[in-house]
């Protein structure tokens, strides 16, 4: 018998039950061992009726049978067995569908019971109980594992399988270098497996979990770090034109911007290509860092491509770049799918000849006909909007170019460390000074009046607003408000206030012209779908109303809210919600109400959604952590990273004898 045997090796588990196990991903005995319980049923102490409370109405103790009777129920007459525990407290067992208990629970005999009881008018009863002959059978005096179940499977069957699998487990070789066990006070793996299923104490269970989780994380980190090419850092200096640009700004870089710029500059000057994520909240000034680093690259002779997720945003960036970078002599081009004919030909030629330094555009940048003379640096704005393939397509336009991904939806550090371990991360934590935090209100759908009057006051002050709805028109799900209908309704609510409707189905030109009017204040408010989500920058817009806010994800809500609060004016976000919210939706709204910190929000998002959803990589085996939870124990993730870095630094090839076990575990 061996742990690699199929689960049917467990006595009493046949082909049919095995199918249920397979649904849980358990094929072999070892799979069973690797399936951590989701919790424990602590039956160490006998609990009599006297020990029960509202919070914990369970008992596990000895009882003695006093008498039998019957009571009328929906299904006719049901057996009732009166018993008492060793303290002499009476209890009634309501034996629905268990008439056989009459023969078994003979008067005067003693049994062990595990039950959840009810108390009514001072009397205890239970319909949910297990009766066993001995203490051991009832599991009293031990801690029992509680597993996730599937179909017909019961805890009893799962426990039988795990106990059997563990009995077959023979001592395992160490999975970690010897010194680590001591230093981090880890358990040996064989003991850890036993203890995670059948711990003697809850502390022991936690120890076991720590060992197994740490091992898993360490291997994950080692794998990522080995795949990553080390970058030889040199101190880098800003180029002449970078300095000129800096001097022309009406403000100074924040310390975070400076540090990030330095990190990027060092990478750009180094031998190996950069692969870096620049993260910072909406409006924290990432774009400026990107432009400065672009100038650095251009001054050392490379071309730069800047890719944005929408034409609108690309255009806004191109305008900004023209204003900042043209004066210092950077040659800029703008390319989207809508740039056609002679203009496109000329533009492509100038890219190919190297007469353009910086091209800004949408995914059209990696169309087949686009060729660069010397693309050295690709910058990707709002990277989460692009798929891996699109990012790679842009990368292929150059010879192993440096890549900077920018994101206003920060990735929590633990997630970055585990799943993006091959990426370096620069973070802008603090905002440029003078920003006032946005005030967020949660508004019940049927009490929107006050909100409308508050917005009216803002209009009178000369400020502007966004109204966001999840749908374009009223087809399909009729309970959701749509922009088209609401556009008309809002006209009645704000009579005479000029407004415009904007959504993804409008032609680009029309969107641009609406935004121009909005910027120039000829339009007071926009009625929009989430097309306004990304990047739009209108300083005098101080209010945003998001209806059916419960329908939006946290990242989208945060982005949408970031449309306001972009100047020194106080600003407001109204999240309107309906009835029957799911628990997750409530949690999301609560987070939005509590904080405007994108990093906090990202962490909460991770807690609510789990890492698989956040990385968009739910299926990948790489993400399948069996014991570790990056939300539960971020310290362990940090610890594993630290150890992995140390090991790789000392022994990159893992060729030292003490690291042989790691090489083995990683199958290299
Ligand atoms: P992000 O791209 O991170 O969302 P932006 O680059 O759009 O943020 O910056 C938002 C605004 O802040 C821009 O108008 C920009 O000019 C301004 N800004 C950038 N850095 C600073 C700074 N250090 N001090 C003051 N304002 C800044
Ligand atoms: Mg931005």
Gist of the model:
The chain is of the alpha/beta class and 668 residues long.
Primary descriptors:
668 residues; alpha/beta; OB fold (Dihydrolipoamide Acetyltransferase, E2P); Rossmann fold; seven-stranded parallel sheet; six-stranded parallel sheet; 37% helix; 19% strand; globular; binds adenosine-5'-diphosphate; binds magnesium ion
How would you portray this structure in words?
- This protein has 668 residues and is of the alpha/beta class.
- Among the domains are: 45-141, Nucleic acid-binding proteins (OB fold (Dihydrolipoamide Acetyltransferase, E2P)), CATH 2.40.50; 240-428, Rossmann fold, CATH 3.40.50.300; 439-595, Rossmann fold.
- It has 23 helices and 20 strands.
- The strands form 4 sheets. Strands 10-11-9-12-13-8-14 form a 7-stranded parallel beta sheet, with helices on both faces.
- Helix 6 (189-197) crosses helix 7 (202-227), helix 7 crosses helix 22 and helix 8 runs antiparallel to helix 10 (286-299).
- The site of adenosine-5'-diphosphate (ADP) has 15 residues, from helix 10.
Topology:
Layout: H1 15-23, H2 29-33, E1 39-42, E2 58-73, E3 76-85, E4 90-95, H3 101-104, E5 110-120, E6 123-132, E7 143-146, H4 155-168, H5 178-183, H6 189-197, H7 202-227, H8 240-248, H9 255-269, E8 275-280, H10 286-299, E9 303-307, H11 311-325, E10 332-335, H12 341-353, E11 358-361, E12 375-380, H13 388-395, E13 402-407, H14 413-419, E14 424-428, E15 439-444, H15 449-460, E16 464-468, H16 483-493, E17 499-502, H17 508-519, E18 525-528, E19 541-546, H18 554-561, E20 572-577, H19 583-594, H20 598-609, H21 611-615, H22 634-650, H23 660-666
Parallel strand pairs: 4-6, 8-13, 8-14, 9-11, 9-12, 10-11, 12-13, 15-20, 16-18, 16-19, 17-18, 19-20
Antiparallel strand pairs: 1-7, 2-3, 2-5, 3-4, 5-6
Helix pairs in contact: 6-7, 7-22, 8-10, 9-10, 19-20
The structure holds adenosine-5'-diphosphate and magnesium ion.
């Amino acid at each position: 018998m061996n742990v690699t045997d199929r689960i049917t090796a467990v006595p009493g588990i046949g082909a049919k039950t095995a199918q249920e196990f397979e649904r849980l991903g358990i094929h072999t005995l070892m799979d069973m061992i690797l399936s951590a319980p989701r919790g424990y049923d602590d039956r160490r102490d006998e609990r009599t009726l006297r020990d029960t409370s509202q919070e914990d109405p369970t008992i596990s103790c000895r009882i003695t049978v006093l008498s039998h009777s019957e009571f009328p129920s929906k299904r006719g007459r049901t057996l009732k067995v009166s018993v008492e525990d060793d303290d002499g407290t009476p209890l009634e067992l309501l034996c629905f569908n268990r008439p056989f208990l009459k023969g078994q629970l003979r008067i005067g005999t003693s049994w062990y019971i595990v039950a959840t009881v009810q108390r009514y008018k001072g009397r205890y009863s239970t319909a949910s109980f297990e009766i066993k002959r001995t203490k051991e059978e009832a599991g009293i005096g031990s801690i029992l594992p509680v597993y996730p179940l599937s179909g017909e499977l019961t805890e009893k069957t799962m426990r039988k399988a795990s106990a059997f699998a563990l009995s077959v487990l023979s001592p395992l070789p160490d999975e970690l270098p010897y010194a680590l066990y001591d230093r981090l006070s880890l358990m040996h793996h064989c003991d850890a497996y036993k203890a995670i299923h059948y711990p003697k104490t809850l502390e022991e269970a936690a120890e076991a979990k720590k060992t197994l989780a740490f091992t898993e994380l360490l291997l994950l980190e080692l794998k990522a770090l080995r795949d990553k090419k080390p970058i030889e850092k040199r101190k880098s200096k800003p180029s002449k034109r970078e300095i000129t640009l800096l001097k022309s700004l009406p403000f100074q870089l924040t310390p975070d911007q400076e540090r990030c710029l330095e990190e990027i500059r060092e990478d750009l000057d180094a031998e190996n290509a950069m692969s870096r994520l620049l993260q910072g909240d909406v409006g924290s000034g990432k774009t400026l860092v990107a432009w400065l680093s672009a100038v650095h690259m251009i001054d050392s002779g490379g071309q730069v491509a800047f890719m944005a997720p929408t034409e609108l945003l690309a255009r806004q960036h191109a305008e900004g770049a023209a204003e900042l970078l043209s004066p210092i002599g950077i040659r800029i081009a703008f390319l989207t799918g809508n740039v056609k004919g002679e203009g496109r030909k000329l533009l492509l030629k100038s890219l190919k000849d190297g007469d353009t330094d910086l091209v800004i555009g949408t995914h059209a940048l990696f169309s087949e006909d686009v060729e660069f003379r010397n693309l050295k640096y690709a910058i990707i704005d709002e990277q989460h909007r692009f798929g891996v393939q699109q990012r790679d397509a842009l990368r292929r336009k150059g010879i192993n170019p440096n890549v900077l991904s920018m994101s206003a939806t920060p990735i929590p550090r633990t997630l970055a460390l585990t799943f993006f371990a091959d990426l370096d991360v620069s973070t802008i934590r603090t905002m440029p000074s003078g920003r006032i935090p946005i005030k967020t209100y949660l508004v019940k759908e049927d009490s929107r009046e006050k909100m409308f009057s508050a917005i009216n006051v803002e209009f009178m002050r000369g400020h502007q607003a966004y109204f966001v709805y999840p749908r374009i028109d009223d087809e399909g799900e009729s309970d959701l408000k749509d922009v088209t209908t609401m556009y008309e309704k809002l006209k009645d609510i704000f009579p005479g206030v000029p407004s415009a409707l904007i959504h993804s189905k409008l032609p680009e030109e029309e969107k641009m012209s609406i935004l121009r009017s909005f910027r120039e204040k000829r339009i007071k408010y926009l009625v929009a779908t989430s097309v306004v989500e990304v990047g739009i920058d209108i300083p005098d817009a101080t209010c945003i109303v998001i209806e059916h806010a419960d329908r939006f994800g946290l990242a989208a809500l945060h982005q949408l809210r970031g449309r306001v609060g972009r100047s020194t004016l106080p600003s407001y976000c109204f999240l309107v919600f309906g009835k029957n919210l799911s628990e997750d939706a409530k949690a999301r709204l609560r987070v939005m109400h509590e904080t405007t910190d994108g990093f906090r929000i990202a962490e909460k998002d991770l807690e609510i959604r789990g890492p698989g959803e956040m990385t968009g990589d739910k299926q990948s085996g790489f993400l399948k952590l069996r014991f570790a939870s990056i939300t539960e124990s971020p310290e362990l993730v940090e610890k594993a990273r630290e150890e992995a870095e140390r090991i790789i630094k000392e022994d990159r090839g893992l060729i030292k004898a003490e690291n042989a076990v790691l090489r083995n575990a990683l199958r290299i």
